Amino acid sequence: MALTMLDKQAEKKDKSQWPADIAAEFERESKNPNPCVGNALLSENERTRVWIIRLAPGERIGFHRHVLDYFWTSVSGGRGRQHVHDGTTVEYTYQPGETRHESYGKGEFKVHDLENLGDREMVFMTVEFKDSANKPMALPAGVTPQSAAA
């Protein structure tokens, strides 16, 4: 059976007020949803989008919105912090090869960021499935698969 984030225990979880810059960024995302669920789009076809997230120690990828069914795999392992749209802040440790599957019903979504709390690069691969309950959001101009640029 595929594991989801509901199966993962947060090492730290709280609902304290977010820093002002994080809260302001979250508000901006709510008015202009960000469909870029990684630093770079590696590949896209009629069925999938494949993304990579690479975060140096202390680096953060900003708020982005998941509306499609997807899975992620932690390539490197590491420790990260997320601010989630329900107001919680959570911290997790990820193991190399750890994979989680997520799915969303019509109108459902998740918005979060991710910060690398570790002392080495943290890498994730994410594969989104376009044939989901929600339609894929349009990508911003200039976001094209890196494989198309090669």
Helix content: 10-25%
Mean pLDDT: 94
How many helix segments? 2
Compute the separation of the termini in Å: 37 Å
CATH architecture: Sandwich
Number of domains: 1
Count of beta strands: 10
SSE run: EHEEEEEEEEEH
The strand order across the widest sheet is 1-7-6-9-4
The value of Rg in angstroms is 15 Å
Q: Given this structure, which CATH class is correct? A: Mainly Beta
Structure class: mainly beta
The third-level CATH topology is Jelly Rolls
Global morphology: globular
Strand content: 35-45%
Query: Stretches where pLDDT falls below 50 for ≥5 residues?
Result: none
Biggest sheet descriptor? 5 strands, antiparallel
Q: Tell me the CATH superfamily.
A: Jelly Rolls
What is the topology?
Elements: E1 12-14, H1 20-31, E2 40-44, E3 48-55, E4 60-66, E5 69-74, E6 78-83, E7 89-94, E8 99-102, E9 110-116, E10 122-129, H2 146-149
Antiparallel strand pairs: 1-7, 2-3, 3-10, 4-9, 5-8, 5-10, 6-7, 6-9
Q: Mind explaining what this structure looks like?
A:
With 150 residues, the protein is mainly beta. It has a single domain (5-133), classed as Sandwich (Jelly Rolls), CATH 2.60.120. The chain is 11% helix and 40% strand. It is built from 2 helices and 10 strands, in the order E-H-E-E-E-E-E-E-E-E-E-H. It has helices spanning 20-31, 146-149; strands at 12-14, 40-44, 48-55, 60-66, 69-74, 78-83, 89-94, 99-102, 110-116, 122-129. Strands 1-7-6-9-4 form a 5-stranded antiparallel β-sheet, with helices on one face. The protein has a 5-stranded antiparallel β-sheet with strand order 2-3-10-5-8. A hairpin with a 3-residue loop joins strand 2 (40-44) and strand 3 (48-55). The longest helix is centred in the N-terminal third of the chain and has 12 residues, at 20-31. The chain is globular and about 40 Å long. The termini are far apart.
